[in-house]
């Protein structure tokens, strides 16, 4: 069987997304995730961030002529949404990269920030500290010319990278993003989507709440391995797809990685899978990190807007009539 490369994953992504209108809030409405979270590097791993760095990629259609903006909700670490330990002493850097190597550099496509993960051409960078200027409101980066992204042969889209780094301090910065065609409001960029290889986010502390992540399964994948960091024994993880009604897995303990493995069947190829985090008890400040690999150890990207829509189980799949 042929090994599926990460470039093939993004090829599938761009072919699909350019034919549809996706939303660009991050986290998205479909994910039901309250916030993205990045801790500063002095924080304990028991707080739920394994590497204090978050990397997102986003694709802008090649025919997009209008500049776009990256809007960041509550980028400072001091407000009501953040996780503060003692005096507020943390800094967070948001950096945008485009140009050659922004995506195709292999160090950028990793679950850990190693080597040349900040590859490409630096387009903008901003460090936020513990102020209140942007508390509960938006900071805007840009405008960015779509053609400043990385364009690749046979790929009808420009790829940009956003790297968020926790610098000194020990607090958790909780924030949201929106890739917008307007500077002063959140307006979708038609045909765009975003994805990442590792996702660190806050779960709701409401009992029975459900959060979702959506990996896409291309041809050649026969198994998935989902690594989850620091779920705090809060609930269950359920896998739903066109062929899975809901496979249930138990959660991991504080400050540890849990591994979930399940096979991929033919009906699931070229569809998204819904990996759900189901709270069975209230756990305050429950942050988790997640990455997914196929049977070859290749990272599988997951998308803020699931390709093909949120997967729904089709009960007739696999049912054969009796002889």
Give a written overview of the molecule.
There is one protein chain. By secondary structure, the protein is mainly β. The protein has one domain (6-303). It contains 1 helix and 22 strands. The protein has one helix at 6-17, and strands at residues 25-26, 35-39, 53-61, 68-73, 92-98, 121-128, 138-144, 150-151, 157-166, 172-180, 193-196, 198-202, 210-213, 216-217, 223-229, 235-240, 247-250, 257-263, 271-272, 274-279, 287-294, 302-303. The strands form 4 sheets. Strands 1, 2, 4, 7, 10, 12, 15, 18 and 21 form a 9-stranded antiparallel sheet that branches. Strands 3, 5, 6, 8, 9, 11 and 22 form a 7-stranded antiparallel sheet that branches. A 4-stranded antiparallel sheet has the order 13-20-16-17, with no helix packed on it. A hairpin with a 6-residue loop joins strand 16 and strand 17. It is globular. Residues 1-22 and 319-323 have low confidence and may be disordered.
Q: Averaging pLDDT over every residue, what do you get?
A: 88
Instruction: Tally the helices.
Output: 1
Q: What is the CA-atom radius of gyration, in angstroms?
A: 19 Å
Largest sheet: 9 strands, antiparallel
What's the overall geometry?
globular
Percent helix range:
under 10%
Low-pLDDT regions: 1-22, 319-323
The total domain count is 1
- How far apart, in Å, are the first and last alpha carbons? 34 Å
Beta-strand proportion = 35-45%
Structural class: mainly beta
Beta strands, count: 22
């Amino acid at each position: 069987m042929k090994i599926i490369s990460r470039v093939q994953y993004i090829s599938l992504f761009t072919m699909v997304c350019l034919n549809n209108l996706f939303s660009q809030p991050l986290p998205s409405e479909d994910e039901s995730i309250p916030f993205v979270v990045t801790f500063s590097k002095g924080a304990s791993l028991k707080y739920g961030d394994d590497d204090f760095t978050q990397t997102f990629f986003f694709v802008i259609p090649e025919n997009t002529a209008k500049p776009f903006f990256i809007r960041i909700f509550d980028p400072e670490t001091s407000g009501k949404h953040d996780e503060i330990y003692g005096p507020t002493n943390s800094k967070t850097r948001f950096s945008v990269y485009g140009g050659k190597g922004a995506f195709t550099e292999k160090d950028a496509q990793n679950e850990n920030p190693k080597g040349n993960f900040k590859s490409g051409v630096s387009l903008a960078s901003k460090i936020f500290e513990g102020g209140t200027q942007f508390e509960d409101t938006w900071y805007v980066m840009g405008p960015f010319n779509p053609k400043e992204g990385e364009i690749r042969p046979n790929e009808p889209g420009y790829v940009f990278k956003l790297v968020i780094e926790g610098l000194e301090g020990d607090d958790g910065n909780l924030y949201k993003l929106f890739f917008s065609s307007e500077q002063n409001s959140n307006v979708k960029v038609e045909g765009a989507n975003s994805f990442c290889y590792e996702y660190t986010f806050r779960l709701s502390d409401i009992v029975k709440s459900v959060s979702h992540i959506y990996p896409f399964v291309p041809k050649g994948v026969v198994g998935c391995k989902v690594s989850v960091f620091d779920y705090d024994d809060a609930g269950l993880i359920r896998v739903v797809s066109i062929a899975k009604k809901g496979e249930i897995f138990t959660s991991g303990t504080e400050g540890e990685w849990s591994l979930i493995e399940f096979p991929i069947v033919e009906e699931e190829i070229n569809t998204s899978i819904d990996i759900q985090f189901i709270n069975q008890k209230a756990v305050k400040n429950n942050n988790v990190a997640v990455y997914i690999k196929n049977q070859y150890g290749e990272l599988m990207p997951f998308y803020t807007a699931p390709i093909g829509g949120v997967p729904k189980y089709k009960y007739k799949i696999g049912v054969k009539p009796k002889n």
